[in-house]
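Worked example 3 (structure in, sequence out).
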């Protein structure tokens, strides 16, 4: 039993700075280890694969890569003396049985802390629809909103949304066997707050000095899209979801290259918001959540008021289901330019590989020629050994030396 072991399990929610934190921890594993903190990951998505394995979730074929990954992660936890941090937002969907299995896998005597990062629903709902779109779904915005507001909805859209966004329920599952002082709720600051404030809050829970880590090196984030950009990606999904684009290519070309690296940087597009009726419903639900959570005695890092949506502003609601065709066309044009640029880069890479292959083939042919010359000389030497006593003596001596080796 290792009484010194402490495990911090960060279970989401999505769109609360999780990608930022995971990238920062992944980049600084050596620095963390020097101060007794383990972030066990040999690849950026190691905790994602472990979570898939823990919950046996299907995920576009990636679940096959995930087999055995949770136990591998847990073994690293059990072998470490000190603090361990595990982080992935899909852990929010873990059932009571999954949570129990996770807790037990860390070994007896392990002090487990659960960390849940949360953001107000008025910002989370549009973000979650965009995540659906970036994962190949084609359901429209209004249909998505209607499904998640329907208390009787049982389909995959509503089930997934509430699995990762029903904060009181997530905390109930993960904290069932923990004292309240080992459950930490980190609230996401409001827009306009200092840029590093969220990281400072995470660092305080992890027991780290936030100033000791260079946050400017973080490359992985999960930025939001504008209205026209979201509309374009959803329409694109409708065209490539019938076997046109395999999942691994979709992840590289659509989600990463187009959505994250290109379209999220467009600043002149309207931001996605909630229509008035949905906003009123979300505000009312948020108040119930704050009342519930604030009475549970969890360790709050931030402010419960940050879960209360801001007052309504005067910005008009822009519906991605009816985004103007000219705006979507502009997004599509930029996407084509981006893909052409990437295609050109790949063409240059392929041409470079072809040139390298030609060099290797030439080196191979030269080696074969040289080997052939040596073999011809060797055969001639052996033939002469049959007729020349001197050469025969030398050849037999050479064979004896080889046998001794």
């Amino acid at each position: 039993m290792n009484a010194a072991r402490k495990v911090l399990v960060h279970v989401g929610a999505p769109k609360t700075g999780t990608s930022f934190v995971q990238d920062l921890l992944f980049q600084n594993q050596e620095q963390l280890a020097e101060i007794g903190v383990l972030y066990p990951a040999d690849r950026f998505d190691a905790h994602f694969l472990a979570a898939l394995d823990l919950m046996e979730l299907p995920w576009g074929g990636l679940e096959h890569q995930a087999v055995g990954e949770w136990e591998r992660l847990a073994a690293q936890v059990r072998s470490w003396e000190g603090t361990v941090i595990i982080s992935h937002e899909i852990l929010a969907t873990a059932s009571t049985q999954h949570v129990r299995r996770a807790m037990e896998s860390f070994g007896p005597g392990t002090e487990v802390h659960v960390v849940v990062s949360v953001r107000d629903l008025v910002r989370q709902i549009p973000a979650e629809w965009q995540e659906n779109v970036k994962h190949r779904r084609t359901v429209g915005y209004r249909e998505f909103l209607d499904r998640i507001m329907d208390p009787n909805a049982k389909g995959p859209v509503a089930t997934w949304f509430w699995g990762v966004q029903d904060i009181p329920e997530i905390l109930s599952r993960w904290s069932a066997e923990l004292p309240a002082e080992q459950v930490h709720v980190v609230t996401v600051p409001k827009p306009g707050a200092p840029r590093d404030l969220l990281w400072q809050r995470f660092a305080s829970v992890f027991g780290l000095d936030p100033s000791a880590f260079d946050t400017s090196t973080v490359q992985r984030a999960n930025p939001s899209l504008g209205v026209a950009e979201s509309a374009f990606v959803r329409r694109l999904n409708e065209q490539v979801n019938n076997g046109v684009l395999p999942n691994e290519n979709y992840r590289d070309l659509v989600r990463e290259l187009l959505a994250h690296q290109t379209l999220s940087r467009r600043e002149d597009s309207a931001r996605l918001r909630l229509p008035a009726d949905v906003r009123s419903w979300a505000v009312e639900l948020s108040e119930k959540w704050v009342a519930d959570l604030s009475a549970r005695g969890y360790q709050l890092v931030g402010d419960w008021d940050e879960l209360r949506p801001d007052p309504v502003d005067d910005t008009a609601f822009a519906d991605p289901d009816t985004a103007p065709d000219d705006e979507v066309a502009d997004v599509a044009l930029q996407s084509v330019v981006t893909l052409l640029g990437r295609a050109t880069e790949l063409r240059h890479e392929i041409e470079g590989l072809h040139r390298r292959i030609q060099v290797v083939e030439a080196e191979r042919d030269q080696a074969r020629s040289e080997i052939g010359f040596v073999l011809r000389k060797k055969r001639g030497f052996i033939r002469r050994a049959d007729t020349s006593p001197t050469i025969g003596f030398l050849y037999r001596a050479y064979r004896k030396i080889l046998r001794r080796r």
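Notes: Residues 325-385 form the longest helix (61 residues). The longest strand covers residues 111-118.
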